[in-house]
Design goal:
With about 220 residues, this protein is an all-alpha fold. It has 7 helices and no strands. The model has no long low-confidence stretch (mean pLDDT about 80).
Length: about 220
């Protein structure tokens, strides 16, 4: 880079246009150019464009849901896609009719809408991970879930996921730990209502551990 500047200086000298820019000043420009750090990040996501205050409202909705239903409970809700799509549209309808704040949460209807949209995005991405090619180019031994025997069960390809006992396409993959935690949260909720820890709870917890080889 310095060579380019020096060449430009010589051209200026030849044209007698150096009076407005002293050699000392030009040297400072060269020093500044060489001492300036470089970071090649063109074309990368600009996270500083994210409106943090509005994102915080979405996080508030997520926090409220975690306190009410349990952490990550939204990942294992039955018929989740339809239900979250309906919830998203209910919040949109309320906002469209002029109701800005959700009465129950005290948060913006748009924050709830965005939260449900994020859930749907997550489910869409998870479904893409678990698409099984019907006719792969190179066919090897077919993987099946060792528990249910289904090839489309998320556990067939990754033992980190719980068995869904299903061969339906585009299943949602739920980590075993989250499935177990959700079961305990459900038991604790039922226990808080009845103050009775039933044998069914103990049996279900025992069967879960045996199912995944936990001690």
């Amino acid at each position: 880079m310095r060579n380019l500047y020096e060449e430009a200086w010589r051209e200026l000298e030849k044209s007698n246009k150096v009076s407005t820019l002293s050699e000392k000043t030009w040297g400072l420009i060269l020093d500044e150019e060489e001492n300036t750090g470089k970071k090649f990040d063109m074309g990368k996501p600009l996270w500083n464009t994210l409106p943090i205050k509005e994102v915080e409202q979405i996080v508030n909705v997520l926090t409220m849901g975690a306190k009410k239903y349990g952490l990550d409970n939204w990942k294992i809700v039955p018929n989740a896609k339809d239900r979250y799509e309906n919830a998203m549209m209910r919040h949109y309808s309320a906002w469209k009719q002029g109701e800005l704040i959700d009465e129950e949460s005290g948060e913006s209807h748009l924050a709830h809408l965005a939260c449900n949209a994020l859930f749907l995005m997550w489910m869409e991405n998870e479904a893409k991970k678990n698409v099984v090619l019907e006719y792969p180019l190179i066919r090897t031994e077919m993987k099946v879930c060792k528990i249910c025997g289904n090839k489309r069960c998320p556990r067939a390809n990754d033992l980190r996921y719980a068995c869904n006992d299903s061969n339906e396409p585009h299943q949602i993959a739920i980590p075993v730990e989250i499935a177990y935690r959700d079961m305990l949260n459900r038991h604790n909720l039922e226990y808080s209502e009845t103050n009775v820890r039933t044998e069914e709870h103990q049996k279900e917890e025992k069967e879960f551990k045996e199912k995944y080889g936990w001690k």
